[in-house]
Amino acid sequence: MAPISSLGLPVSASHRFVLAVSWLILFSLLSQIACGIYCDEDDCYDLLGISQNANASEIKKAYYKLSLKYHPDKNPDPESRKLFVKIANAYEILKDEATREQYDYAIAHPEEVFYNAARYYHAYYGHKTDPRIVLLGVLLVVSALQYLNRHSRYTQAINMVKKTPAYKNRLRALELERNGLASNKKKGNKQMDKKVEEELSNELELQIQGTEKPSIWSLFAMQFILLPYALGKMLLWRFCWFWRYQINKAPLTWDDACYLTQACLKIPHDAWQNIDKSAKQNLVMKRLWEKVNMENYQAEMKRESKRRR
């Protein structure tokens, strides 16, 4: 094949010529795609035999005229039936102001393929879909992804823990406790059977901070369904709290004092559960929910931190 420069044009001019031809081809293809979502490969205006400037009355007259000619009841020809379907589709697009404006925009801006397609599908299918079904579908998809992600993280964490000596020691201790072999060192040092190890592993409840076992109750979909219940429960709890401690001036219960201490120190619930009982009692006795006590506690922690340095 001869190089472009052999056509007698300068190289730079040849490049511009090829680029212009390429853009024309691309523009033509994009135009066909943009308009194809409306009337396939045909032009909606040409199907009705009208110009793009035709008004609503002219569009209606053109459609009725063609209907008398190509309607299946008037014309038994199979090709006429196919043509009538196209004419009816073109009329549905052009008779509505919104869809006609979208079609005209697609003709004028064929390069915006994705934008034109989105407007088309939104106009034709958006109003036919119940928003509640869409919301439910989104929640289910997000919840499924959430569950798979948590399950994957939990499985990886469990597999890593099972390789640690501490886990193997717990497993061995559980076997000795269950079989009453605590005094038999020879059997205790024997390699554990895989089947027995799997059974004992199922009995151990591993609590790994940050990678808890996935539960359906923590999924977005379930939380959304239970949202009214959770809001009602929270409002009732706040009312009872206000009535008990603001109106009746009752002394704090241990659980409520723990809650206030945990909230003041911003300690997660799981981390608070793992704190030693005596340490919890020491923190609760400081009454950190009172501003002065909290300030004294923070100052004490700063001094302790400096001493350790």
Automatic annotation (TrEMBL):
Transmembrane feature ranges:
216-236
**Compartments reported by the entry:** Endoplasmic reticulum membrane
- List keywords of the entry alphabetically: Chaperone, Endoplasmic reticulum, Glycoprotein, Membrane, Signal, Transmembrane, Transmembrane helix
- Biological process (GO) annotations? protein folding
Q: Which SUPFAM superfamilies match?
A: Chaperone J-domain (SSF46565)
Q: Pfam families given for it?
A: DnaJ
All copies of the J domain together span 43-107
Q: Does the keyword Signal apply?
A: yes
Q: Which domain of life does the protein's organism represent?
A: Eukaryota
Question: Which terms in the GO cellular component ontology are assigned?
Answer: endoplasmic reticulum membrane
What residue stretch is flagged as signal peptide? Answer: 1-36
Q: Report how it sits in the membrane.
A: Multi-pass membrane protein
Task performed by this protein: May play a role in protein folding in the endoplasmic reticulum.
Q: What is this protein called?
A: J domain-containing protein
Per the UniProt entry, what species is this protein from, by scientific name? Vanilla planifolia
